[in-house]
């Protein structure tokens, strides 16, 4: 790898971005607590795949193309905001629903493929990912970086993201977290509803020059 690339700083920036509370980590936590480990891991896999897609696009210049064509970025922005508001509506509906038996709702859990698609859609419609990976590759990587350098960085960032996202799924699907969710289901769902709605509104009202 080129000596001009500081992989440790790149991984640190990516770690802060992926581990910080946001729509993806909220969705992973909520799915893992309410539907169990399998659904949570599947959703985390979808988020990881979406992250790898944005990373590849940014590494090979497609992110810059997207930002240069305002309508592409605006389309992603409205899709992302709409999806987050949809998740907010679902969480609010669950918060208002009658109490369920004190077990994980396995019967109503999404299939692995459906949970994966949900995680993928959540990250592919997140315009903040375009900005993050675009900045990461434009600032942290020299112009003379080789294709091998870019692939190594993509692999390292992707592997780290996979550990973080799947770690969230494992953590929040533990018996203790599941029991806590079952006791405070309405509180958790209300918090998720507010957080998803706030994120969606923020995306709608943020303008990128």
UniProtKB/TrEMBL annotation:
Its main location: membrane. The chain crosses the membrane at residues 53-73, 120-141, 153-172, 184-204. One of its GO terms (molecular function) is amino acid transmembrane transporter activity. GO terms for cellular component: plasma membrane. Pfam families: LysE (PF01810). Residues 1-19 form the signal peptide. InterPro entries: LeuE-type. It is a multi-pass membrane protein. Keywords: Cell membrane, Membrane, Signal, Transmembrane, Transmembrane helix. It is found in: Cell membrane. This is Amino acid transporter. The lineage of its organism: Bacteria, Pseudomonadati, Pseudomonadota, Betaproteobacteria, Burkholderiales.
